[in-house]
């Protein structure tokens, strides 16, 4: 996720704005971003390990449990647009340390939780606030170190999501039967403390503190291409996380024969692990053809895959589906923010426009999984939820194609034009 909170000051010197585009310091910051992705999106995409466990332990509906994960993603997006302003003012390390403390405390408190509201506040709110304080700030720093290789650097950082998506389910798989829930969570929290502390050591801001743009640029919505893109991003974020939340539970209920809990965690690790391919490949292609040209077909492909998911009834088929969908969905998550820069003519407004796009997407991430969970609760099966996610992704892909068409008419570019 690229220029999420990047704000360019016209008064800054050219030398300070020219990224080194490589070198030891730049790649160290990239490694820091990888660790942050591991502990934010890697944790988010591993929520499926908790979904089925909490439904059984707390005796709550699927939709109610989904709110724990979705509020965390909402806060990551929504509050992240505000933490970026503090980074602009020179408070990067203060914000980052606050994020580490919030996230680790949230996980530790989760380990001793016993009631639904305990988990909602600790794992949902505290961890979500912690995510927002480390994710957007480190991306703001990383974006200042790369220009020509920015998509590659962001792709490498984003692969941390796959790293975390394999580490945390594997940790739960190995430790939960031996140590129990509480100590498994405590070890996960210590893992996050160590890796995020290492990320803090390697992340060094390059640009001097500067003023921030306004939080909202209302004139942006008069730009039809931008408005279409943001609306499309809402629909894609509304549906893309369905599998990450529900595929473990689905594999234990809908398959014949069903998978065990341990096997369902293996499936989730595969879904996350193959994301490395999707993130790196899509970043490389986007560098050459344009982010929206890659984003749109991936959204449409994900829509078709969610409909095809309805036809999967055996173990082999679900493993194969998870591999394909994991690659496509990871590409979508990586590409979503990058298109805004291509639709923004005034570079000084990239940061605020990205913040606005993230704010809109935050409400999709907040409501998508609970809506799908409510459909599952009412239906008693997964067809309705799969159809919901597939349909909203199709709408997102269609709106991206319309945005591309508007851009073509405005610029005179052909269908193969870079955007």
From TrEMBL:
It is a multi-pass membrane protein. Pfam families: MFS_1. It comes from Fusarium vanettenii (strain ATCC MYA-4622 / CBS 123669 / FGSC 9596 / NRRL 45880 / 77-13-4). This is Major facilitator superfamily (MFS) profile domain-containing protein. Keywords: Glycoprotein, Membrane, Transmembrane, Transmembrane helix. The chain crosses the membrane at residues 65-84, 91-110, 116-142, 151-171, 183-203, 224-247, 267-285, 292-312, 318-343, 355-376, 382-403. SUPFAM superfamilies: MFS general substrate transporter (SSF103473). InterPro entries: MFS, MFS_trans_sf, Proton-linked_MCT. Belongs to the major facilitator superfamily. Monocarboxylate porter (TC 2.A.1.13) family. It is found in: Membrane.
């Amino acid at each position: 996720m690229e220029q999420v909170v990047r704000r360019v000051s016209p008064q800054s010197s050219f030398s300070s704005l020219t990224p080194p585009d490589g070198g030891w310091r730049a790649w160290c910051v990239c490694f820091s971003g990888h660790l942050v992705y591991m502990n934010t999106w890697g944790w988010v995409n591993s929520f499926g390990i908790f979904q089925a466990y909490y439904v059984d332990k707390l005796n709550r509906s699927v939709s109610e449990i989904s709110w724990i994960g979705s509020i965390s993603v909402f806060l990551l997006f929504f509050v992240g647009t505000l933490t970026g302003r503090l980074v602009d003012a020179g408070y990067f390390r203060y914000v980052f340390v606050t994020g580490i403390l919030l996230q680790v405390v949230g996980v530790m408190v989760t380990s001793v939780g016993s009631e639904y509201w305990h988990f909602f506040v600790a794992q949902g709110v505290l961890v979500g606030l912690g995510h927002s304080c480390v994710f957007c700030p480190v991306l703001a720093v990383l974006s200042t170190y790369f220009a020509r290789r920015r998509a590659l650097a962001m792709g490498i950082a984003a692969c941390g999501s796959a790293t975390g998506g394999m580490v945390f389910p594997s940790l739960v798989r190995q430790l939960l039967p031996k140590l129990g829930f509480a100590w498994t969570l405590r070890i996960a929290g210590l893992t996050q403390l160590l890796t995020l502390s290492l990320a803090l050591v390697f992340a060094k801001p390059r640009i001097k503190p500067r003023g921030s743009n306004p939080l909202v640029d209302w004139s942006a919505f008069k730009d039809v291409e931008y408005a279409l893109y943001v609306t499309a991003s809402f629909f894609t974020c509304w549906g893309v996380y369905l599998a990450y939340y529900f595929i473990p539970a689905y594999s234990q209920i809908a398959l014949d024969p069903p998978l065990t809990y341990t096997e369902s965690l293996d499936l989730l690790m595969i879904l996350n692990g193959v994301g490395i391919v999707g993130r790196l490949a899509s970043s490389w292609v986007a560098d050459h053809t344009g982010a929206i040209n890659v984003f749109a077909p991936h959204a449409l492909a994900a829509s078709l895959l969610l409909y095809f998911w309805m036809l999967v009834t055996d173990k082999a088929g679900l493993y194969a589906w998870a591999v394909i969908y994991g690659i496509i969905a990871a590409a979508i998550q990586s590409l979503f923010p990058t298109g805004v820069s291509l639709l923004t003519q005034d570079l000084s407004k990239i940061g605020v426009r990205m913040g606005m796009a993230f704010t809109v997407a935050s409400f999709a991430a907040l409501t998508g999984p609970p809506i799908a969970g409510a459909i599952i609760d009412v239906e008693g099966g997964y067809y309705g939820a799969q159809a919901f996610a597939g349909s909203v992704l199709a709408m997102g892909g269609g709106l991206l194609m319309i945005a591309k068409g508007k851009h073509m008419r405005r610029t005179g570019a052909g269908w193969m034009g870079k955007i």
